[in-house]
Hints:
With 149 residues, the chain is mainly α.
Amino acid sequence: xxxxxxxxxxxxxxxxxxxxxxxxxxxxxxxxxxxxxxxxxxxxxxxxxxxxxxxxxxxxxxxxxxxxxxxxxxxxxxxxxxxxxxxxxxxxxxxxxxxxxxxxxxxxxxxxxxxxxxxxxxxxxxxxxxxxxxxxxxxxxxxxxxxxx
Length: 149
């Protein structure tokens, strides 16, 4: 993928991916154990994605991993993992008929988020969000390259 193996991307940003999974599990576990949305929202997968985006945008150049194409691969792996985990949590809610934080009205437009449309939105969204995140990351990479000369 973009001149590197998937394993290379996972190795490069492994700590980000592990942190995403950990935050996902904390959010899901808290919600299944009755914590309120106001408590759970402090554990943010989006914050992990933002930190990962900034880190990868700088580190891809500093650590000589590649350039813009490789940055897209890194961002794609992060976002697809995040959205697939969320899609799985929504499917879990559908199968068990037990709501969780990922199907809460606060995150699903005020309605019950345990539906196929919501799952598909995350499956597709992981790829679409990656493009926009990559554009932002490309600006950070551009600045990093200019400043490191």
